TrEMBL record, chain A:
Residues 5-128 form the Na+/H+ antiporter MnhB subunit-related protein domain. One of its GO terms (cellular component) is plasma membrane. It is found in: Cell membrane. PANTHER family: NA(+)/H(+) ANTIPORTER SUBUNIT B, NA(+)_H(+) ANTIPORTER SUBUNIT B. InterPro entries: CPA3_antiporter_subunitB, MnhB. The keyword ATP-binding does not apply. This is Multicomponent Na+:H+ antiporter subunit B. Belongs to the CPA3 antiporters (TC 2.A.63) subunit B family.
From TrEMBL, chain B:
It comes from the Bacteria. One of its GO terms (biological process) is monoatomic ion transport. This is Multicomponent Na+:H+ antiporter subunit A. It comes from Alkalitalea saponilacus. The keyword Acyltransferase does not apply.
């Protein structure tokens, strides 16, 4: 049975929660937040969507399958780790862009931010991969 | 000039990785286009060879490296140039050769990728100036050869052969790694140039014998020396171009190279001499002996390679300037004729479809140019003038005669092996190319005219090169004296001549040839004896023995794994807790101070107390819960309670994470709860009492630890460092976050990998089940459709 109200709520919640999660991701450097938390929060949006619309719908929404998300997240982390070598620093040291004060008051851009983005993407991939797999096995609304 | 070499080695790897993208554009021309790269390396090295002085080495430093002390620096000296020339030169010819030979194979991009990477690894190996870099390339050659030997991976035989080669050579690689670390610790440097310049010799160090045995193990496994020789005949499962490359210039010769390279550091002692002479001597004779009884041309050649490698190792073991010189010359000789002969085997295979020397007959008719090249190569193998092989063999004899103190055993072995080599050479050529009325006439699938020039070029060029160097071996004198200077540390004048005059060595050569011809004439009875011997030997078949050892090892490992990984979650927890308590209580007894803090406890806040009360209540509820759902919910309350506790004490990030993780766990629980088996209390009273005692003990011990943690006062507090540097170094005010993604990002990386593995575990556990479900659905829908059609 379709539940129109729930369906609308799921879509709205997903959109809102994605914005919140990106906000959390970016503010994480100065205030509570960060890639891991933002990743979990974003995935709750997708989970609700999956519960309402089914696992195939959420897979379609994600475009690439969840394993590719995990892989891309890890790849971003790897890039963030290896990038400093180009500047002649040891791997995993942080490199920051010098930005005008108007921007750097809110967010600093550098390899740690890239690292955090990688964590964010792979956490989404990991949680959804587990949940979707379980849903598929249990034929839970698929 | 040399700097370009750095670039070229890097380019080999880059091109190797990019082959899958290049191949669709170039199609069948890939091999020819790729061959430009080794050709350029060859030319660069040739120019270096002509310009380098006899006491000069060039160090190419690249400041780039993975870790400090592991810079990718290269060194050019006589030894590395000689090896590099053969690797790049033969590599060039092999690529040309395989562009036709491999034309009908599937997965050609794979082939070219592996081959180019192999070439790059081998080139890097001989030029590396850093021991660790040498090791990295050494392992890369093992891995690349694993893929190349098992290229026809649909055949059980080649899979087995490649696995065997990998296990044996990777074992040697581990030994080498260990030896390198030991050497680095003892001497304080990993640079070969520093080791040579400071003339460090480990001979008197207490760990010398350990280092020596590890290096020797690495070398004899790689170079297929007795008793590890058996992987090499197996490795001929590889496509012929690979065999040609593996045997002539790369892979198996890496062990010989390693011995020569590390000679200044560990060579020249009594143990070194006797071990090398022992293994080299046995291998030399055994290889030559076993090659007589074979029918397959490639197999014959494989055994002669083993014999030749044994000769080189033996010569290094004899340890006189003459013997080292002979070893290097013999390496060149062997590379030239063996590369040629393997390519000839490939040509014969392509044109007739067979490699059995007793079935092929009168091939001169169809492939005359190849036959002439084969004649030259075989003459070189037998060590007859005017080929370079003659020069090489004369040097070997000379070195064996002069071997101090052991000449009486080395010389007969050497002469015996050479007699057999001569006999094998004549037999091979006679059976293949001379027309014999008693054998059936061979049908040609292709005649030589139908082959492209690139296919024949390799064999012919190598044969001509062997002839040319044999006529004027002076060309090699300068580079040889350079090589010897860096191996043995003193320079000597080197004279290479085809004609030595009428002396002891020449007499031996004539004797060898006469005996060889005699064996050839009586080859039938001799072959019978050798076949009988091989049959007897097969009872102690080393490859089978090796496989059964490996199988037993796997059996043992799986047995132990089953014992440890029994699959009962409760026993895992039990083990974990009991071990933890045991370890903690050991530590506890060491601190005997008063547990309670002197200043007393801080005043208890009422909301914390309330929280703790609720959490404790829910623990008790969870323990005695009658349904699963209530137990789960109670556990959830505890989780959220802990999150609240974090919040009260100001750990906002922790609290958020705790809440979110609890939520996700709840969702997963709710999803699966319907499918779990009925909730029941199955454990007996005794086991419940046991579990209760353990859990109470764990709780008590954790409380004790928390109390005792107050007593430990570290000198510098880590958290102060983070507080001070969070904003200045990491540009962040949130300390937790700067720790996570900046100061300790390695930990975070590790955690990410762990949870990725968890996701992969869940996925792979359920994947088959999902597939089965889908299949069932498809079948059901198929049946439905079928029934519908029936109705229509």
């Amino acid at each position: 049975m379709r539940n129109l109200i729930l369906e609308k709520i799921a879509v709205l919640y997903l959109r809102a929660i994605l914005i919140v999660s990106v906000w959390l991701l970016l503010r994480g450097h100065n205030e509570p937040g960060g890639g891991f938390i933002a990743g979990i929060i974003a995935s709750t949006g997708f989970i609700l969507y999956a519960i309402v619309y089914g696992s195939t719908a959420v897979e379609k929404l994600l475009r690439y399958n969840t394993r590719n998300w995990i892989g891309s997240g890890l790849l971003i982390i790897l890039i963030a780790v290896v990038l400093p070598i180009i500047w002649g620093k040891p791997a995993m040291s942080s490199i920051w862009m010098t930005l005008p004060d108007s921007i750097s008051a809110y967010v600093h851009i550098g390899t740690p931010l890239l690292f955090d983005i990688g964590v964010y993407v792979s956490v989404i991939g990991i949680i959804l991969s587990i949940i979707i797999t379980i849903m598929d096995v249990l034929k839970w609304n698929s | 000039m040399g700097n370009i070499l750095l670039l070229l080695i890097g380019l080999l790897f880059l091109v190797g990785v990019l082959v899958p993208f290049i191949y669709p554009v170039l199609k069948k021309r890939t091999g020819v286009v790729l061959s430009v790269l080794p050709l350029v390396i060859f030319i660069v090295l040739l120019l270096e060879l002509l310009s380098i002085g006899s006491r000069e080495s060039i160090i190419l430093d690249s400041t780039w490296g993975f870790l400090s002390g592991m810079e990718f620096s290269y060194r050019l000296d006589g030894l590395s140039i000689i090896f590099g020339l053969l690797i790049s030169g033969i590599g060039f010819l092999i690529l040309l050769f395989s562009s036709y030979y491999m034309a009908k194979y599937d997965r050609q991009p794979h082939f070219y990728t592996y081959l180019t990477l192999f070439m790059g690894a081998m080139t890097g190996l001989v030029f590396a100036d850093n021991l660790f870099v040498l090791f990295v390339f050494w392992e890369l050659t093992s891995v690349a050869s694993f893929f190349l030997i098992g290229f026809d991976h649909h055949l059980e035989k080649s899979r087995q052969a490649s696995l065997q080669a990998l296990l044996i050579t990777a074992f040697g690689g581990l030994c080498l790694l260990f030896a390198i670390i030991l050497t680095g610790n003892i001497t304080g440097t990993y640079r070969i140039s520093e080791l040579i310049n400071l003339s460090i010799h480990l001979g008197n160090h207490p760990h010398y014998y350990l280092v020596l045995s590890l290096v020797l193990l690495a070398a004899i496994t790689k170079s297929a020396q007795f008793p590890f020789h058996f992987w090499l005949p197996g490795a001929m499962q590889a496509p012929t171009p690979i065999s040609a490359y593996l045997h002539s210039a790369t892979m198996v010769n890496a062990g010989v190279f390693l011995l020569l390279r590390l000679y200044p550091v560990i060579g020249g002692t009594m143990a070194w001499k006797y071990l090398l002479i022992l293994t080299g001597g046995i291998t030399m004779f055994l290889g030559a002996f076993l090659s007589m009884g074979q029918r397959d041309l490639k197999r014959i050649l494989a055994f002669t390679t083993i014999s030749a490698l044994g000769t080189m190792v033996l010569l290094i073991g004899i340890d006189t300037p003459n013997s080292i010189k002979a070893a290097i010359v013999f390496f060149i000789v062997h590379g030239l004729y063996k590369g040629g002969l393997f390519m000839i085997a490939g040509i014969i295979d392509k044109s007739t479809g067979s490699r059995d020397i007793y079935k092929l007959n009168g091939l001169f008719r169809g492939i005359p140019v190849t036959a002439i090249a084969a004649l030259l190569a075989v003459i070189s193998m037998a060590g007859l003038p005017p080929m370079l092989g003659f020069v090489g063999k004369e040097l070997v004899y000379e070195a064996q005669i002069q071997a101090p103190g052991i000449s009486w055993i080395v010389l007969p072995l050497g002469v015996g092996a050479n007699i057999l080599m001569v006999a094998v050479s004549i037999t091979v050529f006679y059976e293949l190319f001379v027309f014999n009325k008693s054998k059936p006439v061979t049908e040609f699938k292709y005649h030589e005219r139908q082959f492209p020039v690139t296919f024949l070029a390799g064999a012919v060029l190598l044969a001509i090169l062997g002839l040319g160097l044999g006529m004027s071996p002076r060309f090699l004198e300068n580079i040889l004296s350079n090589a010897l200077y860096y191996i043995q540390g003193h320079s000597m004048e080197i004279k290479l001549r085809l004609w030595h005059g009428f002396n002891q060595v020449l007499m031996l050569s004539i004797f060898t040839i006469l005996c060889g011809v005699a064996i050839f004439i009586f080859r039938k009875p001799v072959n019978r004896v050798i076949s009988a011997f091989i049959n007897w030997l097969d009872r102690y078949h080393l490859p089978t023995l090796f496989t059964s050892v490996i199988n037993y090892y796997i059996y043992l490992a799986s047995k132990n794994t089953r014992r440890i990984q029994h699959g009962y979650h409760r026993f895992y927890l039990l083990t974990f807790f009991v071990v933890t308590i045991a370890l903690i209580s050991l530590q506890q007894f060491r601190i005997t101070e008063v547990i309670l803090p002197e200043s007393g406890f801080s005043p208890v806040k009422w909301h914390v107390a309330l929280l703790l009360f609720i959490a404790s209540l829910s623990v008790i509820f969870a323990v005695f819960a009658r349904t699963r759902l209530s137990a789960i919910l109670a556990m959830g309350v505890i989780g959220y309670g802990i999150g609240m506790l974090y919040l009260f004490y100001g750990a906002v990030d922790l609290a958020i994470t705790q809440f979110l993780v609890e939520t996700i766990i709840m969702i997963v629980f709710v999803m699966v709860i319907y499918y779990l088996p009925r909730f029941a209390i199955l454990s007996s009273k005794a086991s419940r009492v046991r579990d209760g005692i353990i859990s109470i003990a764990v709780g008590a011990f954790v409380t004790l630890i928390v109390l005792k943690a107050q007593l430990i006062k570290p000198d510098s507090r880590v958290s102060d460092f983070f507080v001070e540097n969070s904003y200045t170094l990491a540009h962040g005010k949130n300390i937790i976050n700067t720790i996570l993604i900046d100061f300790r990002s390695l930990d975070t990386l590790g955690e990410m990998i762990v949870i990725t593995m968890a996701a992969a575990g869940v996925f792979s556990l359920f994947r088959f089940q999902i597939q089965r479900l889908k299949k069932k659905e498809e079948e059901a829908s198929h049946v439905e459709r079928f029934e519908k059609q029936g109705d229509d």
